[in-house]
Amino acid sequence: MPKISPAEIHAATHAALMAHGATDHVATHVARATADSEAHGNTICGLSYVESYCAALDTGRVDGSATPVVSTPRAGAVTVDAAKGFAQPAFDAGLAQAVSAARTNGIASLAIAHSHTCTSLGYFTAQIAAAGLVGLGFTNASPVVAPPGGSKPALGTNPIALSVPGDGKLALHFDSSTSAAALGAIKEAKAAGTTIPTGWCVDENGAPTTDPAAALKGGILPLGGAKGFGFGVMAEVMAAALTGSVNSVDVAGLKVGEGPPHDLGQFYILIDPGTHTDHWSARIARLASAVSDQPGARLPGSARAPMAEVDVPDALWDRIVALA
Length: 324
Prior knowledge:
Elements: E1 3-4, H1 6-19, H2 24-39, H3 50-59, E2 69-74, E3 77-81, H4 87-105, E4 107-115, H5 122-130, E5 134-139, E6 160-165, E7 170-176, H6 183-192, E8 201-202, E9 208-209, H7 212-217, E10 219-220, H8 226-241, E11 264-271, H9 280-292, E12 310-311, H10 314-323
Parallel strand pairs: 3-4
Antiparallel strand pairs: 1-12, 2-3, 4-11, 5-6, 5-11, 6-7, 8-9, 8-10
C-alpha cells in the first residue's frame, strides 16, 4: 500500500476531473476537498468518490463547467445556486459574502442549492471557523436510513457539522452523520465478506441484521434511535426545504454515474461568537479543560491536524491514476 502525500492526491484528482470534462477552477476546488478528506483520515469522503465524480461528468449527471449564481435575498442571507454543478466551487462563490454578512449582522445564513453531493460537510464548516466564526452545517443525501420501526429508507445519512474557532486552530470540530453507520462502511463489509455490528441496520422486512447484503436491501438505522432520527429530520429540513433542493427520497445513489443530477442542498449558519458576549472563548476553554483534564479525553476535533502522508490501497490509487 503506497504512502501518498495530500499534494499528490490533489494533483491526481485534479487531472482526473479535468480529463473527464471539469474546468480547471472546478477541478481545483473538488481536488482540494478530496485531498483534505484523505489528509484527515476521512477516506469515505476522499479518493473513493473520484471514480463516481468522473462517471457523473461523463454522463452529464454533474456539470463540470457550471457557474454558481450568488444572490442575497436578505441582508444576512446568501444563496448560491450551484446550477447542478459541484458543491465545492458553489460554497466558495458565496463564502466571502456570507462571512461579511455575519460580521455585520452577528449571524448569517449561506444556502447552497441544486448541487452534487458535498461529500465531507466538515470541510466547509472548518472554512467558516478559519474566518473566526462559528460554523454550523447541514446536508442530506440519497435515501438509506429507515425510520424507527420502519424498513424503507426515508432519509439520507444527513450529516450535521459544527466548527468552532480557537487560537490559531479549531477549538472544536464535529462532523457526523445522523445514521448509525456510513453507507460506505456497509458496502466495504459486503465487499470483504464480513458481517456488520448488530444495531446498524434492518433488512427489507424491518428485522435487525448483521448481513451487509441484507442491509443494503433494507435500511440503515438512525444514530441513537428516535433521537438520531430527529436530528436527521432536522438536517433534511435545513438542507432540502430551506434551500429548495430535493428530499433524500428523491435522490438516486450518490455514486451512480447515470441518472438525474443530485440536486442536493447544504445549509450553513455563520455566527460571530463575540456578538452577545465577550466571554465566549472563556466558556469554550472551560469546557475544553473539563474534558481534557480527564486522561485520554478531549473535545471532538480539538487535536485535528492533517497527515503528511496517507496510506492508499494500491487498486484505488491505480484507478485514480488511470482516470487521470
